[in-house]
Amino acid sequence: MANERNYVSYATATVAVAAIPLSFFGPGDLRLAVIGLLMLAGPGTALVLLLRLDPPRSVQATGALPLSIAIAIAFSLAMSTLVATAMVYARLWSPPAGVCLLSAATLGLLGFELKRSRRALAGAK
Q1: Fewer beta carbons within 10 Å, N or C terminal of the chain?
Q2: Rounded to 10 degrees, what is the CA torsion of 6, 83, 98, 72?
Q3: What is the DSSP letter of 1?
Q4: DSSP string, 45-101
């Protein structure tokens, strides 16, 4: 289970880091895929990892994974909408800056999750 969480954390961090340079330049199809994935699932996946919404190993807990996916997508789309709305109201429209803000939020949440898991490992020893 811990390895699965690590793989998801690494994949989320990779998408967040890759989106920053791709927001300024790069092939259009790759930009669409990476930035779209960040806006659809980046900050929300980091939040779900931070909240530790892992399904327990039981037959009755079959609804935990769809709930985690729904929370991840809903939070990511809400963050994307809030960033875009704030840029419109501030009259500072810059899509690359918005992507950088979403990447920073994703990496910040992943950093909190990493710090908490390391603290938990140190306490378990």
Answers
A1: C
A2: 20
A3: -
A4: HHHHHHHT-PPPSSTT-TTHHHHHHHHHHHHHHHHHHHHHHHHHHTT---HHHHHHH
Using CA atoms, how far residue 8 sits from 48, 50, 82, in Å, is 11, 12, 25
Query: Which pLDDT tens digit goes with each residue over 74-108?
Result: 999 999 999 999 999 999 999 999 999 999 999 99
CA gap 17, 23 in Å, rounded: 11
Q: What one-letter code names the amino acid at 5? A: R
Look up the pTM and report it.
0.86
Q: Name 109's Cβ contacts closer than 8 Å, sequence gap at least 6.
A: 43, 46, 47, 49, 50
Q: Which residues contact 1 (CB under 8 A, 6 or more apart)?
A: 54
- Mean pLDDT is highest, among 24-38, 56-70, 111-125, for 24-38
Helix (H, G, I), strand (E, B) or coil at 27: coil
Specify the DSSP class assigned to residue 24. T
Residue 121 and residue 91: Cα distance in Å, rounded? 45
